[in-house]
Every structure is written in C-alpha cells, then in structure tokens.
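As a warm-up, study this chain.
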Amino acid sequence: MNKWKIETSDAPQALGPYSQGVATRIGTVVFVAGQIGIDARTGLLVGDAIGAQTEQAIKHVLAIVKAAGASETSIVKTTVYLKRFGDFGGMNEVYARLFQAPYPARACVGVAELPKDALVEIEAVAVLEG
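Now compare it with the structure written out below.
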C-alpha cells in the first residue's frame, strides 16, 4: 500500500506516536470495530493494568487487519477510548512499541464506561492495496 505521512507546521506537532495525518491512494477500506483487552478464549479481561489491556486490544486489532489480508502498516487511523485519562501515558507507551512510524493518525478520548469495565478500547481503519 502506498501510504505517507502528512505533516505541517501550521498545526500542532504530534504529541506522541501518531501522525498529524496519513494519506493513501484508497483501495479497499477495512473498519476494525473497537477492541478491548480480553482473552479471546475466555472472554475475560487480561488484567487490571492499562499496559496489559492495551497490548491485548492492539493484538486483536492487528489480528483482524491480518485476517483482512493486510498488515500493521496498512492501518491509517485509530481511535483510543480511555476509561481513565490518567492512563494515557501507560497506553501510549505500549502503543508506541506495537505500532511503527509513520504512525497512524489517532484520536484519544476519555469515556465514562467501556464494555466489561475495560480500561481501554481501540478501533482502527486500514486500507488494503487495490
């Protein structure tokens, strides 16, 4: 897939592992539903720490993208929902380790509740070459 980072000094620089914008010549678009940090076999959260739940949620996102015939580098946009915005640093650390530059464009918002009382939920948009 032909994907490139969009960056301008006319907007704030990225404050973490994400791009201001990502452009692509659109092929097939894959929308990945929000994923939380549960064990796919048991349906239980993988723990009560933001790092473990973030890692598991991202692994689910990557597995779904792979099942669609794409790879991590095909992801152009993510949205992260945090139950406690104070967990941003812990989430961001894991996110930076599991994604690579150029990072997807990203939004991160604080929410009151998530399914199964999860700490984080992550959704994504990927583009398949086509």
